[in-house]
Specification:
This protein has 53 residues and is an all-alpha fold. It has one helix and no strands. It has a domain of 27 residues.
């Protein structure tokens, strides 16, 4: 069983290179965050499916 992350962060490095304001909770970023979460889960599943020899 995987634990949920303690927190999620998303930064705009062009506008905020020092990471002072996370955009993760911004309603305008909901679709982007969902797409990133889906891609991450797919990658984790791919890695988990690999067999070590």
């Amino acid at each position: 069983m995987q634990a949920e992350p303690a927190f999620i962060e998303l930064y705009d490095y062009v506008k905020d290179p020092l990471e002072t304001r996370s955009l993760a909770g911004n309603p305008e970023q909901t679709e982007r965050m969902a797409a990133y979460e889906k891609a991450l889960k797919q990658k984790i599943a791919e890695i988990a499916a690999c067999k070590v020899r």
